[in-house]
Amino acid sequence: MKILIVEDDSLLQKGLYDGITANGYVCEVASNGKQAEQFIQFGQFSLIILDLGLPDCDGLDLLTRWRKKQIDTPVLILTARDTIEDRVEGLDHGADDYLIKPFALTELLARVRALIRRNQGTADNVICFGSITIDIKQQIVTQYQREVILTPKEFVVLSRLMLKAGEKVHRDLLQNDLYDWQSDPSSNVLEVYIHGLRTKLGKSLIKTVRGYGYQLNSDH
Description:
Blueprint (H helix, E strand, L loop, with lengths): L1 E5 L3 H12 L4 E5 L2 H10 L4 E5 L7 H10 L6 E5 L4 H9 L4 E4 L4 H15 L6 E4 L2 E4 L4 E4 L2 E3 L3 H12 L5 E2 H8 L10 H13 L4 E4 L3 E4 L4
Parallel strand pairs: 1-2, 1-3, 3-4, 4-5
Antiparallel strand pairs: 6-7, 7-8, 8-9, 10-12, 11-12
Helix pairs in contact: 6-8
């Protein structure tokens, strides 16, 4: 399950990314409307978290264009605009929910779960590739119909690789999924989790792409 965060404030963007990925979701981030449009054009998302005050456009204009293009991905608006009129306008433009800044992460996550649950069935939570099946919502991994127990961080890494199955995944993208405020970006923590996945799922499952990152083997 993949979520697009459209937020220009770098501190809030980082906080959202860390909080959401820590709960088992995979995220992409856009800092302006142009980046968001590119993500929407080339990717599929279960939810969009949209700030209205973007540097190059108003978030409502983005939302209006998406709905006119029949893009029906659920949208959760984040904004400091707190009048009833603002909320009504956002919902009338096609938003599915509206959260006023500042907010608690626990409330945001509850709204994320509710929107995804409302919009998608259980089958959409399941990703299969070769012998591996993962249930994003339940955080369950099976191989050859047998459950494999992963640590939370191993699950995050595998989820990212499964969502891009067959593609090369840059190590920076995987590292961003793992790091929090206290993490040392020079550490070898990613290699530790890759080693753990190979030990539990098979050494040939994850291919090292020299000078780039990793890739799930299509023959596994």
